[in-house]
Amino acid sequence: MGKRFRGCPKLVKPCKYFHFLLGEETIEGRPRELLLILKDREQKLKRENEKLSKENTDLVQENGNLKNENDILKNENQTLKNDNGYLANQCELWMKKMKTAEKKLKKLDKDYRTSNKVNHIMCVVFVVFVAVLVILVVVEMQCIPFLGGGAIGAGTVGAIGAGAIGAGAVGAGAVGAGVRVAAGIPLSPTPVALF
């Protein structure tokens, strides 16, 4: 084992060979081999520290990028909220317009139905009026000349009678003319006589 040299820690056994190679010089009361080990560890720690520092820098940069992306997403979210609010207002406005238009359409439909009924009634009245007018015109053109022209005396009644009615007052048109004059109807056989 050999004796323990000056400054050699108790855990280093044996240390004579290292003292032989490195000498017995010590720095701050520690042997040179321990100092080299510590320096090697220090270099390793420095390299590891540099590596961690670089990784930390990368993480800081990535964190900054994530913050920027987060800010962008927040802005987009706010924009979407604004768009959503605008669309909600537009939807409510359109709903009000649709309700107003629906009321107007119902009113127009009601007015149309009423107008349609009135038109039907007026059409029926007009048809009835035209029918009555045609009947009156036909009556005026057929019956009045028959009464005023002596058709009774010259035709049917004269043939049935022995000539007294056919050749007398009836045959001469006195009955037809008298009836028309008494009724205030002109002797003209035209349809205007009725009006």
TrEMBL record:
Coiled-coil region = 35-118
The keyword Membrane is assigned to this record: yes
User: Which residues are listed as membrane-spanning?
Assistant: 118-139
Report keywords, A-Z.
Coiled coil, Membrane, Transmembrane, Transmembrane helix
- Judging by the UniProt lineage, the source's domain of life is Eukaryota
Q: What is this protein called?
A: Uncharacterized protein
**Source organism (scientific name):** Rubroshorea leprosula
Q: State the taxonomy lineage.
A: Eukaryota, Viridiplantae, Streptophyta, Embryophyta, Tracheophyta
